[in-house]
Amino acid sequence: xxxxAAIIKEFLLLIRDRVGLAxxxxxxxxxxxVMTLIQDSAFKTLNxxxxxxxxxxxxxDSLGTDIENGLRASExxxxxxxxxxxxxxxxxxMKAVAExxxxxxxxxxxxxxEAVRKNVTxxxxxxxxxxxxxxxxxxxxxxxxxxxxxxxTKKSFIASVTSSLRxxxxxxxxxxxxxxxxxxxxxxxxxxKKTPLNAFDQTQIIKYTEVYASKSIxxxxxxxxxxxxxxxxxxAMFFIVMPLSGSIMKERTEGSIFRLNTMPSSYLxxxxxxxxxxxxxxxxxLVLMLSVGTFFLPMLGLPVxxxxxxxxxxxxxxxxxxxxxxxxxxxxxxxxxxxxxxxxMGALSILLLSALGGIWVPTxxxxxxxxxxxxxxxxxxxxxxxxxxxLRGGDASTxxxxxxxxxxxxxxxxxxxxxINKVRRRV
Amino acid sequence: xxxxxIQTMGVTKTFKGSTLPVVNGVSVSVDQxxxxxxxxxxxxxxxxxxxxxxxxxxxTSGNVLIDNKKLSEDxxxxxxxxxxxxxxxxxxxxxxxxxxxxxxxxxxxxxxKVLKDKIELWLxxxxxxxxxxxxxxxxxxxxxxxxxxxxxxLHDPKILFLDxxxxxxxxxxxxxxxxxxxxxxxKGMTIIxxxxxxxxxxxxxxxxxxxxxxxxxxEGSPKQxxxxxxxxxxxxxxxxxxxxxxxxx
Lengths: 427, 249
Prior knowledge:
The structure holds two protein chains of two kinds. Chain A is mainly α. Chain A is built from 17 helices and six strands. Chain A has helices spanning 2-15, 18-47, 62-73, 90-98, 112-128, 132-136, 155-188, 199-202, 224-238, 241-253, 256-261, 267-296, 311-335, 339-357, 368-374, 378-390, 396-425; strands at 51-57, 77-80, 82-83, 86-87, 104-108, 146-149. Chain A has a four-stranded mixed sheet with strand order 2-1-5-6, sandwiched between helices. In chain A, strands 3-4 form a two-stranded antiparallel sheet. The longest helix of chain A has 34 residues, at 155-188. Chain B has nine helices and eleven strands. Chain B starts with a strand and ends in a 6-residue tail after the last helix. By secondary structure, chain B is α/β, with parallel strands linked by helices. Chain B is globular and about 50 Å long. Chain A binds chain B through residues 1-2, 4-6, 8-9, 12-13, 16-17, 254-256, 258-265, 425-427, and chain B through 15-16, 54-57, 76, 79-80, 82, 84, 86, 88-95, 99, 102-104, 106-109, 111, 135, 151-152, 161.
């Protein structure tokens, strides 16, 4: 009966705390919407039409035309050849990129195709010639294609964009070189059968296939939704530190704990009442966040959240996360001396643990020392568990270790809370 | 001869980080059915003494026997027979009076219809039936005091500790509270009571102890004390005679 009364009391206190409820349910929903849309947009900028590029093509021959046409046909970017209605020049392009009108500018120099052709012709002649003087002569200067980059662009983004551009330009250049080689050989060996037009395509014997090494191969595609929904759901679950530690602190400051301490009820009964209510709240939060990923984000044109194939695994990791979050909140609430202290301690520690745990930035981009530390963040154990299920196609057996770690964390936080409570009463 | 229900023997309490004892060698005996008033100026050690007797924290030295049980050994059993009405309002402001009483009643081990009937009875006795479903945060000071009192008596405790139960309430509320406490005492409940209202204590208590600087400086029935100190006409003059007129923190 005492436990039932404690649960009812806690439930009533919670539903009457509207700010607390908003923190628990609305804040994480907003976070999921905002963060997923931002990250999805960044992902699209890189992979779909979007990067505004100014192209200054001073080479109307094959190389310049092929690069320009290729970029126009590419999904990587949207190509412009004029700045404010004026035909683009190198100076104008540089200025426009510097002013942020375009993210990238490309300048193909005059005579670039001719230079490539000359280069190849000389190379072929050197290769086939027996004349030692000719074979030792130096090659003409290389062709310089300039790429201007907006200075505010992040280094990692520049690397991705320029790498894609270089790969593309290199392909065009190789094609021209191949054609020139073929023409040269035909000139030198007139009896040789004519090289077919699609001969270059036939040389593409190395192909790349990118397959995500998921246990359900080909089914789960990593995207902003798959990454963000579990991450922010975990963050929200751990953010119950705010209302729960606040509830513990209020009982102390408003005096009800004084009365309760004179009653024949144990600390464990009172805390169990809180834990049961808040574990249920955590699970409701998770259900809500997963529903957002499954039903609401697709309405905004985002991919549908794929929940993997292990319902048992989801239950296991969710319940363990809920207990870990609740235990942590109880510990913070018991440790703090005032409501303000509890709020600051709770919020900051969750921000820190979430940053370490890979909620904000993936752990694999962190320095080694941070990666070592992240192994101690319960948010990281939980996130790894959800990624195992949602991205790697794992099942209950593959998330058991993460769940056990989270439950051990819960037990430790409860022991710490009980010890602190005991020490606090020894005045 | 009436049996002592509370006995303290040389109880001393010195808080951590302090060298001065707040309670210094207090030895008192309270008989069953008595209304025992613990009177003293601010900071005299009244609340600390009550807190020790309620088991909120242990004494630094000395022994306490409640209902023939050692406080240090049988705290859980002792908690079952005591009721506490703290000086500060110890209620959940966002819960209604009924919800608060339901929770605290259950925590005392009373439940179901018995609890429901008791809640209705006391809400009615204290004129709170109509406001019972309103949040405590919307109550006046007097209403909060009355709910605070009911929360301590729902389980019919053998001993009731009241730490300044009428502080900050109007005369009407004070009279209702004292009248009902007298009724409870008539039914056999032992009451330990602290107050600054000397007139109230003189009329209400069967025995008083005056405490100052953590020590009991006088003990007896109000009448005994008034007659013992020459020139004193009431308990207030005895109190001022013993504790002097200097201001206290």
